[in-house]
Please model this.
Amino acid sequence: MNHAFASKLAQRAFVIVCILFVLSYLGSRFFTHIDLALYGYIVGTLVFIGGFLYRFSAWAERPPTKLILKKGLKLLFRRGTSKTSAEHLLTYRFIWNRGWFRWTQHFLVGWGCILSALVTFPLVFGWMYFTMEDNGYYHVVAMGIDVMKIKADGLLAYLFYNALNISAFMVIAGVCMALYRRLKNMQARAEQTFFYDFLPLYMLLFVSVTGLALTGVNMFAGGVGHPVLTIIHQFAVIVTLIYLPFGKLAHIPFRPMSVLARNYREHYGAQEQKACKACGTGFVSAEQSADVVEVLAKNDLSFRTEHGYHLAELCLPCRRKYRMFRFTGIPTHQIDAKEANQHANG
Amino acid sequence: MGKQVLYIEMDNCIGCRSCLAACTQCGGHDNRNRNYVMDVDPFHTRQTIPLMCLHCVNPACARSCPAQAIQIADNGAVLSALVEKCIGCQNCTIACPYGIPKFDQEQNLMYKCDLCYDRTKDGIPPMCASVCPTNTLQWIDEAELARKQEQHLLSNGKWVASQPFNPLEGETNVRISLPGILQGREKLF
Model:
């Protein structure tokens, strides 16, 4: 089986496309409910999968990435994964700790995009559709199963029809906040570039505005230009999807790595702490210390000291003291004195 | 004016810690300093030496980062972790041979000296160098660096070293001269 594919990338692409095909076959009741007006999105998604796998494979081959992926995945079913996942991927608690403004903008953009993806992809692949068997009532069909019956003019139905409008408003508000920050914050202004930082924001804004305009022309202009606008919106979404794995938005599919990293640190940290070779205090898991030494060796970086140990085996204060030794010849790292306070109050 | 570099003349440090205070005030540093002032021989002398990111040409922190969150700017500055990419594994803190990167558990984010990139990209000295009262930290161009180098002809041929061995682990963008280099010289302050 391993020889059936030219590469791992080809194998992964084949498996993912097969899964999509089977899910669509079952979900759309054997292709009887595929919405062909949305076929452009299917093509866009397939190109996205190719691009994502290409980017992912190149990235996963880097020695440090490979290590964390391999060890992190083994620990995936550890206790605490669900809590970490919720905090890192759903509530963005760590961003809240960076500031309420950034959390609000990120929450709006993030959840706006997730919500719209949850509506769009099931519709595109026929995993979800609506039928009207009784007059005035819609049946919501998910994966070929009738899941609920809703009143066509009820509140729930209203939310369903307008889910993409709501998410568009969320994304527009979030993007405007992000743009405001990028125009005002001096640090952001120093480091930002048009293509890395602004382009994805403009793309999301364009997708949201054209999507909202579809509803707008229907409600207020009798549907003038609707066919052209549909194509423009579809084109914008497809370009954004294809671009996603290559720019700043790539942090969306790669963010789950932070859950793996947390598991990796917590699991091995509880097992065995690495004792500093100079002062003896545990400062990191023995596993991670060894892993970093290995990764550095693969990059031809070997920080051996004349005492025979690697610099990654010293705790951080001792490593700084060791540098004083190298600068002056006085063995500061062997003097049993606590490092002076290094935190200035700003 | 050619490329400018941060140059550390360790002999001058008086341990005032102005560089720490100034670091907190750099845009984006969020009132927290990213550099260190180390005691050399704590129970015997008051000698101190400032220690900050030396901005390695081949930075171990970036090589060990699984998320490619540590980028290198056009002026050689090894930047702080990109906030959207950093996954909080702390590999960089273990890898750095000088023990520089700091980690914020709450924000799940590494932060380190970025050579005040918002200033240095426009030729303005980094905060630490702009406040140092004794010229320990200097922001100078390469011509001036060469002039300094000519002044200090050391017996071992390495003008940065008063030590027989190389004090650093590899080539760095920040240049240093070791304590002792100014002995017998008249200082301007």
Observations:
- The longest strand of chain A covers residues 145-151.
- The mean pLDDT of chain A is 92.
- DSSP finds 15 helices and five strands in chain A.
- Chain A touches chain B through 67 residues (CB under 8 Å).
